[in-house]
Specification:
heterodimer; A: alpha/beta; Glutaredoxin; 5 domains; 5-stranded mixed beta sheet; 4-stranded mixed beta sheet; 19 strands; B: alpha+beta; Ubiquitin-like (UB roll); 4-stranded antiparallel beta sheet; 8 helices; 11 strands; about 30% helix; globular; binds flavin mononucleotide; binds iron/sulfur cluster; binds FE2/S2 (inorganic) cluster
């Protein structure tokens, strides 16, 4: 099949014929060994595992291989990086985690050839303590609805035919087979797709206003800057389903009648660039991009632009300046990018996840899409779930799923047992998002509910916090990030966020006054309305939301000079609870400040010299008996 | 640079309850200024494009059609449009302005300009932490923008966020600088300084020779680099910058004297020039 597979599709019919043929080919029924080679799993050694697997499979006798009808696929990220390297056997959907090269012989012998299940490599359900065999039976996946991430992990992103086997480019073919651009526009409008990059702006409306703006050419840009620390859904999509991004853009380009697209990829995502480049080249070679796509009059091509390296470069106007080769700084103009964007021409900028939804909408229809989610937020949203939960990773759920369902369902609940480990807050929306308390756990998550609650959807960051987290410290941390990442162009953001950071630091150091709280609230209002771009406008959110829901914690720092979570160094002291201490001396060895005195011996105990103590917490971390007290 | 096609006819809008005439393509700030309504600004200057960085010129904008929704906009960048209703002194506006000035005062406590503006808004002293080792730079960016539009982009902003500053390539004397002083003249707080002694001028750590009068040798108020830059950029004749003002005046007077004499002789052209033309 190799030769015909590489040929350029001369027409929509030729493409459809090939796709249909593929589905009946041996390839379609092959058993797959799916090895995750996402950035996360690679960091934990997936490349070595893949190499070992490749060798072991190649070493099997030829007739064995044929009989087994096996192929190995290097896939994109399954979103469960914490458990990597991951190997999944398909179609039986056996899920192996934490696979090491030394596990490979057994995995091949018993698992693949022998058809046994290797229990020690299975995921263990933290609730029941029992191993779970099937991919779909693991809470983390069972509780998800994957539309945007439908392909990731299940195919080889570098293999176009693999994408076709998963109905890839069917939506584009459908559109090219007879839809008008207007029809596509209408479909996206009716699907009520909203942008996934942060603002939740109606995508159909954006496309429509670009189309009706004066001036040509029109430009199409995909925002793959993903500057939120901890977020990696866009990276996973670009790495794991690059053709999905390309197909979404091609359909958008058809609707907008434009020929030029750009994907702006964050500097730190070399693998995403590599996969996108490969996918673009393959799509071009097969007539799915470039001149006269599938033999029709529609031509469209995509180039890749590398990010400017700053968080603010993800902001619409800054991104466009950066693509133009200028400094990536937001531009103040009361005119939309859909009128004057890139090179002052009408431009549509959408997020990676927004584009990936497009083919699915075309394929299954606007009505189907609009039936998922809430009244004003349709479809699903991918979240990067992290923090103090058992399962961290990428979680895609229907809009309207409650925070509780995400955190205690897919997330598997709180990481640490006991009162300190209990749920305290969840931070959503990235660095300029907000913290929501336990009383809002049943909040159905969508664009508007989060905003109303004083936080935001942002690009989908979700950090779970327990009682070992201090909310003043959290607000201060995000403010320090934003102070550094502000471009510094406008006064309220540059000077205002900095002063807010100063005030928060004072409070954390026990130097705060009640007037500080009034001051910071007043300043927050001015920064929120006075700043030039959305970074500054949303910059005060971490402070405002923690003040709204955790004011008592600020007050404890100010009035009682106490940090209830035991985090703010200036307000805590470490001591050793002699009744719990067994004299093992682990703390003595761990202390880098020579602040602990005593002799390691059974029956002995230790003292912490508070003056010398650096409050680094190393002793508390090593003490197996929990004898280090923080007050 | 109008965003909406309004034709060319002037129209009216309301600023602080007053009917104000505005022209298509102009910004709210310009229309207000013409009508004698003062809106404070720091980063705006007629010689450069508006930038919207100081946020001092914010005004509250609405329209009857907006059903009560009001937005805070920077007057320097918000295009004038028929039937806008603008407030330049609303509580929200003053709140932002006070905070901006309070913040700038913490940044530049020694700037008399900021002190005066802040005082006008009831801020006598900053309520924030004063910057350590403050200077007079408010980061309005005027210097960078004027250098970009009128000279050589010799300076730029460097670093982000609170560490942003006006800088030169590698922090040294800027190689592209022509010593034209545009930045120093446009700086509203006097942060950018220069010195001139005899025929040398020093700015940004560089020293420039002033152009000298070809006749009397007196220094001209323009550097050698600046003269050649202007000659090239404006396609001027090099002789344009070769004489000082008084020598230029003398030369002009002599020319006029000669002209008067030829006219008496009934000639329309200088005899020498005619000869030159004949030679060609
Ligand atoms: C400081 C800042 C950073 C941003 N970073 C990103 C980003 O990394 N990726 C992204 O898609 N949108 C980002 N945005 C939002 C974009 O400005 C823009 O709204 C979005 O890309 C539009 O796409 P959408 O409508 O599909 O969401 C950022 C906005 C701000 C203010
Ligand atoms: S709000 Fe912040 S990031 Fe945006 S332009 Fe102003 S200083 Fe730059
Ligand atoms: S004058 Fe500075 S923002 Fe308008």
């Amino acid at each position: 099949m190799a030769e015909t597979a590489q040929a350029r599709f001369a027409s929509v019919e030729a493409f459809l014929r090939h796709a249909a043929l593929l589905k009946t080919s041996p390839e379609a029924t092959q058993r797959r060994v799916l090895v995750c080679l996402g950035t996360g799993c690679m960091a934990s050694g997936a490349r070595e595992v893949a190499a070992a697997l490749e060798r072991a499979l190649a070493a099997l006798p030829a007739e064995r291989r044929v009989a087994l009808n096996l192929c190995m696929k290097k896939t994109g990220c399954h979103g469960f990086c914490e458990k990597g390297p991951l190997v999944v056997l398909w179609p039986e959907a056996t899920f192996y985690k934490g696979v090491k090269p030394k596990d490979v012989p057994e995995l091949v012998e018993r698992g693949i050839v022998g058809g046994e299940v290797i229990e020690r490599l299975l995921y263990v359900d933290p609730k029941t303590g029992k191993p779970v065999e099937k991919y779909g039976a693991i809470d983390f996946y069972a509780r998800q609805t994957r539309i945007a991430m439908r392909n990731i992990g299940l195919m080889d992103p570098a293999n176009l035919d693999d994408y076709l086997l998963r109905d890839g480019y069917q939506a584009l073919a459908k559109v090219l087979a007879g839809w008008s651009p207007e029809q596509v526009l209408k479909e996206i409008e009716q699907a009520k797709l909203r942008g996934r990059g942060g603002g939740g702006f109606d995508a159909g409306r954006k496309w429509r206003s670009c189309k009706s703006a004066k001036g040509t050419p029109r430009y199409l840009i995909c925002n793959g800057d993903e500057g939120d620390p901890g977020a990696f859904m866009d990276r996973s999509l670009m790495e794991g389903d690059p053709h999905g991004v390309i197909e979404g853009m091609a359909i958008a380009a058809f609707a907008l009648e434009t020929r030029e697209g750009t994907i702006y990829v964050r500097q730190e995502y070399p693998l995403a660039v590599e996969h996108l480049e490969r996918a673009i080249a393959d799509a071009r070679a097969r007539g799915l991009l470039g001149e006269r796509i599938l033999g029709t009059d529609f031509s469209f091509d995509i180039q890749i632009a590398r990010g400017g390296g700053a968080f603010v470069c993800g902001e619409s106007s800054a991104l466009m300046r950066s693509v133009e080769g200028k400094v990536g700084e937001p531009r103040a103009k009361y005119v939309h990018a859909t009128d004057k964007g890139l090179w002052d021409k009408p431009t549509v900028l959408n997020n990676v996840e927004t584009f990936v939804n497009v083919p699915r909408i075309v394929e299954k229809g606007a009505a189907w899409y609009a039936s998922i989610g809430t009244a004003r937020s349709k479809g699903t949203k991918a979240f990067a779930l992290t923090g103090k939960v058992k399962n961290t990773g990428l979680v895609e759920v229907e809009m309207g799923t409650s925070l509780r369902e995400i955190i205690f369902g897919a997330g598997g609940g709180m990481l640490v047992d006991g009162p300190k480990g209990a749920f305290k807050a969840v931070q959503t929306g990235g660095p300029s998002g907000g913290c929501l308390p336990e009383s809002l756990l049943d909040l159905p998550v969508d664009f508007d509910s989060l905003t109303d609650a004083g936080s935001m959807m942002g690009s989908g960051g979700m950090i779970v916090m327990d009682h070992s987290t201090c909310m003043v410290d959290v607000a201060r941390y995000f403010l320090s990030f934003l102070t550094d990442e502000s471009c510094g162009k406008c006064v309220p953001c540059r000077e205002g966020l900095y002063q807010m950071y100063r005030i928060l630091s004072r409070i954390a150091e026990g130097q705060g006054t009640e007037a500080d709280l009034a001051k910071i609230e007043d300043l927050s209002q001015a920064v929120a309305v006075g700043s030039l771009c959305a970074l500054g406008k949303s910059g005060p959110t971490p402070v405002l939301s923690t003040l709204r829901y955790f004011r008592h914690e600020y007050e404890a720092h100010i009035k009682e000079k106490r940090c209830p979570a035991g985090v703010c160094k200036a307000l805590i002291t470490y001591s050793i609870d002699t009744s719990a201490c067994d004299g093992c001396g682990a703390c003595l060895a761990a202390c880098a400040s020579d602040a602990i005195t005593g002799t390691p011996k059974k029956g002995e105990t230790f003292q912490i010299n508070t003056l010398q103590c650096d409050k680094c917490g190393a002793c508390a971390a090593v003490c197996k008996r929990g004898a280090v007290a923080i007050s | 640079m109008s965003e909406v096609n309004l034709g060319d006819a002037p129209f009216t809008m309301t600023i602080d309850g007053k009917r104000v005439e505005a022209r298509p393509g102009e910004m709210v700030l310009a229309a207000a200024k013409r009508a004698g309504i003062a809106i404070p600004t720091l980063c705006e200057h007629k010689a450069v494009e508006s930038f919207g960085s100081c946020r001092l010129c914010m005004v509250e904008v609405t329209k009857a059609a907006w059903k009560g929704w009001k937005g805070l906009m920077t007057a320097c960048l918000y295009p004038a449009a028929p039937d806008l209703i603008i407030e330049t002194q609303s509580e929200r506006v003053l709140h932002v302005r006070r905070n901006v000035l309070d913040l700038l005062l913490a940044r530049c406590p020694d700037s008399t300009l900021i002190q005066r503006l802040a005082a006008e808004h009831g801020v006598q002293q900053t309520s924030f932490s004063v910057r350590e080792q403050p200077d007079l730079c408010i980061l309005c960016g005027l210097c960078v923008r004027i250098c970009e539009s009128a000279a050589t982009s010799a300076i730029s902003t460097v670093k982000r966020g609170h560490h942003r500053e006006i800088g030169t390539p590698w922090g040294g004397p800027p190689p592209a600088c022509i010593g034209c002083l545009a930045c120093a003249h446009v700086c509203p707080t006097g942060h950018i300084t220069f010195e001139e002694h005899g025929a040398t001028r020093a700015i940004w750590g560089r020293s420039f020779e002033l152009q000298r009068c070809a006749e009397c040798g007196a220094p001209l108020p323009i550097t050698v680099e600046q003269a050649s830059f202007l000659v090239e950029r404006q396609a001027l004749d090099a002789s344009y910058f070769s004489r000082c003002e008084s020598c230029q005046r003398r030369a002009t007077a002599q020319t006029f004297g000669r002209l008067a004499r030829w006219q008496k002789l009934g000639l329309t052209q200088e005899p020498d020039a005619r000869q030159e033309g004949g030679k060609r």
